[in-house]
Amino acid sequence: MGKNNYIKCALFLIIIGFLPVFVSNQYYLSVLVFAGIYAIVAIGLSMLMGYAGQISLGHAGFFAIGGYTSAILTKFHNFHPLQAMIIGIVFTVFAALLVGLPSLRLRGHYLAMATLGFGEIIYVTSGAATGLTEGPSGFSGVPSIALAGFTIKSELSKFYLVWLVALIIMILSLNIIHSRIGRALRSIHGDEIASNAMGVNVAKYKIQVFVYSAALASIAGSLYVHHMRFVSPTGFNLNKSILFLIMIMSGGMGSLWGAVIGAAIFTLLPEFLGVFNDYDILMYGAILLGMMMFLPHGLTGLTTKIIQLVLSKWKTRTQNNP
Amino acid sequence: MNFLEIKGLCRNFGGLRAVCDLNAHIEAGRITAMIGPNGAGKTTAFNLVTGLLPVSTGKIFFQGKDITGLPPHKIAFLGVARTFQNIRIFSNMSVLENVMVGVHTRSCKGMFSSALRLPGVSSEEKFIRDEAFKYLEWMELAHLASMDAGNLPFGQQRILEIARALAAKPKLILLDEPAAGLNSQETNKLSKLIRNILESGVTVFLVEHDMELVMNISHDIIVLNNGFLITRGTPSEVQRNKDVITAYLGEEH
C-alpha cells in the first residue's frame, strides 16, 4: 500500500493510542466513539463513491440492518455480540445484492435511485414492524460487547475497540485500493467502456465494492447499538445517509484518510455548534453546496494544494537566494 | 481457420443498417486496414468485434472460437485489445496506472486476497508494475509515469492508449483512427510504431482516414460503404478499384 500509507497508519495508531490521555471528559470520549463508528461507514462509502464512482444514498439502511440485527439478537435471543454482528453482515450482504444486482448492471445513476428507495424502506419498516423492532420508540437495554471475558462498557474501552476496528478496516481497504482491484475500480470511475474493453468485469467489481461498503456500514451499525445500548429508527433516516455523503465529500472523494477526517469533523462539529440542532439538514445542504463549489477535492485536496503552494514558494525563494 | 472471421454480420440501429451482411477475415501476422467514408460502419464493426455492441445477426470467430455475444471483458481475456476513436484514457489515474490496468487480463488476484495481502499478491503487483513500465519505455512515456494521464498532450494520450492496449499482450489489436488529430511528424512515428507492434507478434487491425498511412503500412485493405463491404485487396488493388473511387468521390457524370 505504499510507504506513505505505512507512515500514515502508524501515525493513526499513535493518535488513537494517545488521544484519550488528553480527553478526560467521558462525554467527549463517547462522541469520539461515534466518530470512529462513522469513520468505518465513511471508509466503505469512499471506496464505493470516491474510487468506483457509484453513488449510494441509502447507506443508513445497511447501517440499520447491522444495528437492528445486533440489538434484537443480543437483547432478546442471547446471541453473543460477535455472532450477532456476523449475522448482521450476512443479512446486509443479502440486501446489498438484492439492491445492487439489478441496478449495478446498468450504466448511469440507477444505484443512487435504488439505494434512496431502499434506505427509506428500511427506515419505514424499522418503525412499522413493531413486533420485531418495538416500533418508532425503539428499545433500550442492548447489552455491551464482551470479548474474551472483558465487558467493553467504559467509554475508554469502547473508544479503543471502535478505533482499532476502524484501523483494521482502513488497512484492508488501503490494500484493496493499492491492488489491481483498486485500479480496476478507479478505471470504472474513469471510463466504464474503456475499462470493460481492457478486460475489467465492470458489473462484478461494482457489485463487489458495493457489498463491501454495505458490510462495513453493517459492522458500524452493530457497534453503534452496542455503544448507545439503545436502538430506534431515528438513527437510520435519510439524514444519516446524507450525513455520510457529506463526511466523505468534505474529507475529499478520492481519499480514504479524507473520509476518516470528514467523519471525525462532522461528528464533533455539531457537538460544539449547538445551532446545528434544529437546522441540521439546512446546514448539511449549505455545506454540501459550498464544498462542491469551492472545495471539490475536499479538505485533503485543500491541504495538498496548500502544501504544494508553500513548497513552490519555498523553492523559488531558495532559487532566488542561493 | 482464419485468425478473425466475420460472417454475415449485421447491426441495425432502429431502421438504420450500420453494418450489413459483412463477411471479412483478418489473417494473423499482417496489418489489415478498414477504410470507407464517414458513416460506413467501421467503428460499429469494431464495437461488434470487441463486444461493446450486441450483434443483430451474424457470427464472429476469433481463432476458431465463436465470440459472438461474449461480454467485452471476456473477449479481452481471449487476447483482443483496442483503442478508441475519441480517446478513452482514465484521466483520473496516472500514466503508469493507466498501463497497469492494461495488465489486468494477465493478472488474477481478487478482492479478498488483495485486502489480506495473501502470499503472491505483492509479487503479482510487482509484475504488473514492471510490465507496465516496459510498455511505457517502449512508447517513450516512462519519464511521464507519475503524471496525471488527463494532463498529457493529445498526441501522447493516443500513444498512452496504445501502450495500455499492448500491456494486455494481445494477439490482436484494434486501432480506431490512431492518426486522427496527429501532426505529420507524429503520424510518421505512428506508422513506425504500428510496424513495430506487428514485429512484436501482435496482429493489427485498424480503421484510418489517413490514406497515406493506410497505403504505406497495410498488407490488406477492407473497404466499407454504407455498412456493406465493397472490396478487399492489397493497397494497389484497392486504389485501382472503381467502386472504391465511386464511394469516396461519387459517380462520374
Task: Walk me through this protein's architecture.
The complex is a heterodimer of chains A (322) and B (253). With 322 residues, chain A is mostly helical. Chain A has a single domain, classed as Orthogonal Bundle (ABC transporter involved in vitamin B12 uptake, BtuC), CATH 1.10.3470. Chain A has 14 helices and four strands. In chain A, a hairpin with a 2-residue loop joins strand 2 and strand 3. In chain A, helix 2 packs antiparallel against helix 10 and helix 2 runs antiparallel to helix 12. Chain A is globular and about 75 Å long. Chain A starts with a helix and ends with a helix. The model of chain A has no long low-confidence stretch (mean pLDDT 89). Chain B has one domain: P-loop containing nucleotide triphosphate hydrolases (Rossmann fold, 3-Layer(aba) Sandwich), CATH 3.40.50.300. In chain B, the strands form two sheets. Chain B has a six-stranded mixed sheet, sandwiched between helices. Chain B has a four-stranded antiparallel sheet with strand order 2-1-4-5, with helices on one face. In chain B, helix 7 links the parallel strand 7 and strand 8. In chain B, helix 3 crosses helix 5, helix 3 packs parallel to helix 6 and helix 5 packs across helix 6. Chain B is globular, with a radius of gyration of 19 Å. Chains A and B meet through helix 7, helix 8, helix 9 and helix 10 of A and helix 2, helix 3, helix 4 and helix 5 of B.
What does this entry show, briefly?
Chain A has 322 residues and is mainly α. Chain A is built from 14 helices and four strands.
Helix-strand blueprint:
The complex is a heterodimer of chains A (322) and B (253).
Chain A: H1 3-22, H2 26-51, H3 59-76, H4 81-104, H5 110-128, H6 130-133, E1 139-140, E2 145-147, E3 150-152, H7 155-177, H8 180-190, H9 192-197, H10 202-228, E4 230-231, H11 238-251, H12 256-272, H13 276-294, H14 298-320
Chain B: E1 4-13, E2 16-26, E3 31-35, H1 42-49, E4 57-62, E5 65-66, H2 72-77, E6 80-82, H3 95-102, H4 111-115, H5 121-138, H6 154-166, E7 172-176, H7 184-199, E8 203-207, H8 211-217, E9 220-225, E10 228-233, H9 235-240, H10 242-249
Parallel strand pairs in B: 3-8, 3-9, 6-7, 7-8
Antiparallel strand pairs in B: 1-2, 1-4, 4-5, 9-10
